[in-house]
Structure formats: structure tokens, C-alpha cells
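Tutorial handout. Part one gives the primary structure; part two gives the three-dimensional structure as C-alpha cells.
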Amino acid sequence: MNDNEMMRRVAAGIQNQSFGKLLGLQVEEAEEGRVVISCQKRDDLLQQTGLLHGGVTGALCEAAAGYAGLTVLPEGYSVIGVEYKINFLRAITTDKAYAVAKVIKRGKQLLVMDVEAFNEGSDKVAAKMIFTGTPSGVMQGYPADQKRWLQPGDRVEVTIEGIGTLCSTVI
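Part two.
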């Protein structure tokens, strides 16, 4: 997959995520194993002293990590966060913040990403995150553009070769 296709996948992921849209996240760069996501500072994203809220910085870093993981997975997969640790090293004081995420471990069950957040125009790290996520595939029977969580009443069928089909209804 080329970098333009990865940019498209990441941008589409942000547009399909209501929280990413709420924060105004934008993909700046995307290549295999690395993405850069930005967030424009707005009054409704500030804490009481006028700085970008740490929760926004954390969400920016988490999104960058998830989308970096997405670039190393097949089409139709996403990344679900399992754990992260973030250190805030300096305040975000500029009008735009950036998060640069790199995949540092790609396993079958877990992906680990290293993320650094920056003030616009600065090379000094404002926040540092280590993020662990797990690949999540598209549910069987649903097209990739109609991904969703199971809902009460959904009927799930699993066919196991040599045993048969098991059925269950989500309650």
C-alpha cells in the first residue's frame, strides 16, 4: 500500500470516529508504521489556565498510535487500545499540536507504538506515550463500511469444521 492510500485510510478513520471529529484531528503524514496527526487549539479544548487540556493531548497521542498501527494491518482491521502510559513534559502553548506515532512492535496479538507530541514549530517533546493495542477485524457478514459492535438481539453463528454450527443470541 502506498503512502497516499495510507493517508486516505487514516483520514477516513478519523472521519468515521465521532470523537476524532469532535477534536478536529487531521492527518498530516502517513506511511507504513508511522503517522503524524494534528489538533488545532480551540477555546473549548483548553483547561482553566488557557493551555490545551491534557486529555486532548492524550487523545491526540492515542489516535496517532492507533492509526500508526492501522498502517501495518490489512484493510478492514482497526486497533483497539489495551493500555497506555503518557508523560506530560511541557505544555502545548501553540495554536496547533502534533503527535508523531511509530510502530515499535508488531505482534499477532499486540502492537506497541511510541508516540511523541509537539508544539507547532518545536522539536522539543511536549508529551511522551507508549501505547499497546490489539488488532480488531471486521465482523463476519458485515461489509467494511458497516462495522459495528454486537448489539442485544444480534444472532451470532460460528461454524467449526468437524463439529458443526454453534448459534447464540446476544443479550
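Part three, for discussion. The longest helix spans residues 54-70. The chain has a mean pLDDT of 86.
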